[in-house]
Design goal:
With about 90 residues, the chain is mainly alpha-helical. It has helices at about 5-25, 30-40, 50-65, 70-75. Helix 1 runs parallel beside helix 3. The longest helix is centred in the N-terminal third of the chain and has 19 residues, at about 5-25. The radius of gyration is 14 Å and the shape is globular. The protein starts with a helix and ends in a 17-residue tail after the last helix.
């Protein structure tokens, strides 16, 4: 059985999350990871998977640059509690 390309891409996606969290420290890491996961599904059917982490990072970076902290505020009222154990507060 062949290994899924997503299994192979996971460490590279983690690297994209770390890079984006460092670049946008005011945006919660959980939100950055959610955006990376969502963007990665956009490329699920891409023929060449080698560039998916780079494309995902660029896509999320553009989204974060366009919305900045306003993007984080949109998710504050989410019904799902934060995984870090911290209460939801507005930035």
């Amino acid at each position: 059985m062949a290994t899924s390309p997503w299994v192979l891409a996971a460490p590279r996606l983690d690297s994209a999350v770390a890079t984006l969290v460092a670049k946008f420290p005011s945006v919660p890491g959980e939100l950055v990871r959610a955006l990376v996961n969502r963007a990665s599904h956009t490329f699920a059917d891409a023929r060449v998977q080698d560039y998916v982490p780079l494309l995902v990072e660029r896509s999320v970076r553009a989204e974060l640059e366009a919305y900045g902290t306003d993007l984080a505020d949109m998710f504050v009222d989410s019904p799902e509690p934060p995984r870090s154990g911290r209460p939801h507060t507005h930035l």
